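How it folds
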Amino acid sequence: MISERVYRVAILGCRGRGTAAARAYYQHPRSKVVGLCDLLPERLGQLGDELGVLPRYDDYVKMIEQEAPDIVAIPTGTEFHYPLVMGALEHGVNIDVEKPLCQTLDEADRVIDKAQGKGVCIAVHHQGRTGGAMRAMKAAIEDGHIGEPRFLLGSGKGYYAGYGLMNIGTHMVNNMIGLAGHVRSVAAMALTAGRCVTPEDVIPAANGMGWIVGEHLTATLTFDGNVTGALLQHRMPKVDSTAYCLEVYGTEGRLFWRSSGAWYLPVPHEVPADDEAAWQRLDDIVPEHYDTSGAAAEADYSFAEEYVNALDEGRDHLSSGAEGRHVMEVLMAIFEAGAYRRQVDLPQADRRHPLMVWREAAGLGVPAEMPRPYHEWLEAEDRRLGV
């Protein structure tokens, strides 16, 4: 029997990602945006007027108590995730939290434990994994189009690497584990100003994403099932969204993904002069009721669709809290491997932030504060490096 339940959704944070989430839940036929919360009245007014949502709050606890949502979306800055998620969980609601889940593994552990104790779900908003192009990639692998997957290669957008890892890298890692399974070990090389990083290079990331290191990062990952991969996060002269892509090499073919689509090559190695080896576009797999004329982005809409289905079926979201925590294990392992220049096995026994442990061992305290906006932050880092 097909469920007709409509899930009540409250949005905590009405900036860019909050607007994207709100539009997706508003457009989906089986979810209803019942309340908005933000500290800035102009944000509340703009999004509330767009969606016709009248209940507007500057206190999320009052919003939850008065609107009784099934899902609370928390698309805020990373440094606010832990306190807001833990506070919302007190009310026994399901959570949709922006990526990454938290700043540290010990925070992520406490979030997962609390959600399990309350009997509710956590979904981390890695919308790419549920988007139509990535679903097409997954289906092509399961259908045997490329034989057995052997190697994955993912790259970022050209941000300063440590920041890019916590920002867009969290999406890429989640996509990679969605295709190849969990990561069992990590090795990495981390460079800043053309040299191996030192504890003095550990700095607070832009936009509240925690402690980072590395202007350039190259990581190798060992997945379940005889699959390996590489993740590239390198600072480039400019940020370029088209550089954000993922390639999967199989025994009989290859797949290529970027946010705009997915492609299939029917041979393991491309031969440019061979017309038969041309890349073929895969059809996106999207919910049949997704309306392209609406304001919701397809990937965010598909994320909402997955959440509705998961709650109907009493299961976790594909991008669950547990998966989001595993993504964080990979990110922290990359930092640790790059700092100590050694292989790191997962899951880690020590759940503290490895870079702060590294600094403490070197007799260093907490790094100095830096600007929050990325471009101002980057200018400050260049001054530190004498650029």
